Each structure stands twice: as structure tokens, then as C-alpha cells.
Amino acid sequence: MKRSDRGARGVVRAIGAMSSIAALLAVAACSDNAPLTTPDGQPVSTVTTRVAEVNIVNADRDLTKTCLAPTAPDAGQTDPARIVVTDPRLLDAVCALGIGPRVVAVTAQKGAIPTYLGPQLTSVPAIGEGPDPQAARAAAPDLVLNSSQSFGTGDHTFPGIRSATIDVNKDWQSQFQATADALGRSSTGKRLLDEFHAETQKTGRRMDAPHSQVSLVRFTGTSEMIAGTETFAGQILSEVGVQRPEPQRSPRSFTVTDKNFTDADGDLIYVSFQGEDGLEHGKKVLLSDRWLDMGAPTWKRVLSVDDQIWYGTSGLAAAWLVLNDVKGSLDGNS
User: Maximum CA pair distance of the chain?
Assistant: First the structure.
């Protein structure tokens, strides 16, 4: 081949490549505002990792891994294969016992099943907003789990079907153990609670938790709340051994005012938002001069957590999520 021929072909290839690049750039320019898609045209899910210049703890949480490993019943105990639940608050315990796939129906209002439980339980068919014996019977359950606040609790509500009633007015650990008892897993329930307690103690020692003063602030649509030590998150932090700033050592939550605004400060502040209104109000406060002048915001020691998991529910599955959030963020920055 003549050198001149090779040169000519090289020029043609270069021109072709430049044309292709130009075409790609043109497409890119036209699609700046278009949503990202997969090769089959499906939208790509993007994870928001910051809000109002604050990092979100576990923003990419995998909800398919919330529920713990499947457990077996205690020796000699009946193992229900099909379970109907008449109160979504009982689902956390079922999830923590690893038997979520056995729930065949749940009584719940739309959106009442906590999303942190993952698709395994949020996809369970609902049989109305109130316990319906006929609908429950149609699901052919081996066991109906009621709560003390379900309508018409007790065995007489579901003739011919084994049922158990859980007192949801008790603390979350008692509720979990009672649910484990009802599911024939009394010793397993105790073991799982003991494992959680052991991990909280180990976490506290490893992270030197007693030397951290952690503030808990929840934003509503109109105000900021300091979460008390009796809140679900407050209990988990206490068990880990994390200290609270002196103004925050009350069991009950209280509202932040102009006079006590700096009571929200600490070595680290975990903030959360109650719904979209709470998020919008919270963003305004987090970017305000008054907030940014406090110690933790100045040191970039403010982190955002999931309000539903930390406060909106309670149970062993949620407790593990809160503990894992603390493990991964107590020493972190925003």
C-alpha cells in the first residue's frame, strides 16, 4: 500500500471519529435535563446523600436486609406457617424473628406499614383498615396476631383460629418478647434480645460512647423538638452509653424556643425530619445563622437520620438499624 493511501485513510478515520464525538456531545447537550436511564430505558435511581449541607446517615440503606435470619420454634412448640397480623406495629417483631414470609395478610391503613421493613412486608396484602374476622378467615391463617389496640381482640374474635394479643402499651422489648412467645419462640426471643444488648455494650466500649454528648433534634413543619431519653432513639443511645447534653436529660421531649435554642447543641447533633413539611422547615433552620453559630454546626458535626426508624416505630429490627447508624456515624462529620 502506498504511503499516500494510508495517510488518506487515516484522515478519513479521524474525520469519522470527530463526527461521532460531535454527535455524542450534541446528544449530551440536549439531554442535560433528561433523567438518567438504564440501557432498557428504565430510570436510574439516584440516592440523595446530603440535605441542607448535612450528610445523611446510611443514605443508601438496603431495605431488603432489614429482617434478621429465619428462626426455628422452641422445642415442642407449634410453628405457624400462615400468619395474619391485625396491627402493623407487630410486624417489626415478626421481621426480627425472620419469619416475615409467613405473614399472608395484615390489617393496615394505606401507607401504615413502615417502609424500613422492606419489600417482604410492605407488599403483604391488606385486608382492610380494621380487623375483619371473615377476611382473616379467608386468608386461612394458623395464627392471628392481635394488638391490645386492635378492634375486638381475643380468641373469640376468630372462632376456630388460634390467636394471640400483644400489649403494645408496654416497652418495645416486652412487646418483642411477647410476640416471640406467641410465635413459639420464647427462648429465641430472649437470645436475640441478649445478642442486641451485648452488641450495644461492645459498641459503647469500642467507640468510647460515655465521652460523647449527643443531641437529638426532630424538625416538624413548624418547630424543632428535642427528643427525650424515653424516645426510641433515646433509649438505644442510652443503652450504648452515649451521653446527652445536660438540658436534654429529661425523659420527655420538649419544643425548642428562642430562649432555649442552644439546648439543641452538643458534641454531635443527629437531626431528623417529620414528613415533607418537617424537611422544608428543617432545611431553613439548618442554613440559618443562628443554627450555624452553634458549636456542632461550626465543627461540621451534624448528621441526618431517618425519622421513621429512629422515632416513628420501635422494635428489635428497627433497634438494629439505629445501632448500625450509630456505629457508622458517631465519629463522623457532616
Answer: 98
d(CA 168, CA 131): 16
- Per-residue HEC secondary structure of 220-275 comes to CCCCEEECCCCCHHHHHHHHHCCECCHHHCCCCCEECCCCCHHHHCCCEEEEEECH
Residue 114 has pLDDT above 80, yes or no: yes
Round to whole Å and give the CA distance between 147 and 169. Answer: 9
Q: Is 164 helix (H, G, I), strand (E, B) or coil?
A: strand
For residue 135, is pLDDT > 90?
no
- Contact present, 309 and 274 (Cβ < 8 Å): no
Which amino acid is residue 101, in one-letter code? Answer: P
Q: Which residues contact 233 (CB under 8 A, 6 or more apart)?
A: 216, 227, 270, 305, 310, 311, 322
CB atoms within 10 A of CB 238: 17
The cell for 42 is 428504565
Domains of the chain: 54-61+197-329 (3.40.50.1980), 72-184 (3.40.50.1980)
CA 196 to chain centre: 17
* Amino acid identity for residue 285 in this structure: V
Q: Of 113, 155, 307, which is closest to residue 219 (Cα–Cα)? A: 307
Q: Is the pLDDT at 259 greater than 80, yes or no?
A: yes
Nearest one of 272, 285, 281, 283 to 312, comparing CA atoms: 272
Name the pairing type of β-strands 54-56 and 83-85: unpaired
CA angle, 294 then 300 then 302, to 5°: 80
For the question of whether the overall pTM of this predicted structure is more than 0.70, the answer is yes
At 153 the pLDDT is: 44
Give the cell for residue 15. Answer: 474525520
Q: What is the pLDDT of residue 34?
A: 52
Q: What is the DSSP string of 48-89?
A: --EETTEEETTTT--GGG-S----PPPTT----SSEEES-GG
As a whole number, the mean pLDDT across the chain is: 87
